[in-house]
Amino acid sequence: EDQVTQSPEALRLQEGESSSLNCSYTVSGLRGLFWYRQDPGKGPEFLFTLYSAGEEKEKERLKATLTKKESFLHITAPKPEDSATYLCAVQARGSGNTGKLIFGQGTTLQVKP
Amino acid sequence: NAGVTQTPKFRVLKTGQSMTLLCAQDMNHEYMYWYRQDPGMGLRLIHYSVGEGTTAKGEVPDGYNVSRLKKQNFLLGLESAAPSQTSVYFCASRARGTNTEAFFGQGTRLTVV
Fold it and tell me: For residue B42, what is the nearest residue in chain A, using CA coordinates?
């Protein structure tokens, strides 16, 4: 069964304290892995897509990496405005032409000034 | 640039009542999805559509029906609401193709009492 697990569930950081969020996946062939940011009361907002092991993408203080079993979202010198829930999702090869995504439970990040 | 718009944003229903949630997208996307988000459960797929006139069941379809009569609209219906359907509902759309990003609406918070 295709599955996505994120850890930790919640993370509290001081401003400037770098850390990483983990997304472990078990799928029957990975077509793509997606990271989203979700602010309270809003819908998820797209951050990155990773396609193959070894790939990395960056956006401001965020950097996403991918291996054959997991992805990391590295947050460098975070600011309070980085506080949000970060969601990981995968599209498996078994999804065919449906474009279906399987989501993890999310990691809620709080950055204190 | 409206993107994905959900109507209504909030709703309180009594057990047994029916309602329809409307999702409209203006990006000419082929794929549309309805998810529900519950604490600790992540986003779970209810129903989806890969094109006008087509729908399919997702992970948690029981108690819901959908219709996609027009390409830009995807309707989610609750025929007889139950307290277990209290949740936040998100609609999303994606363009056809591998690894296209999904765009989400702002969500509908539904409470069934």
Answer: A105
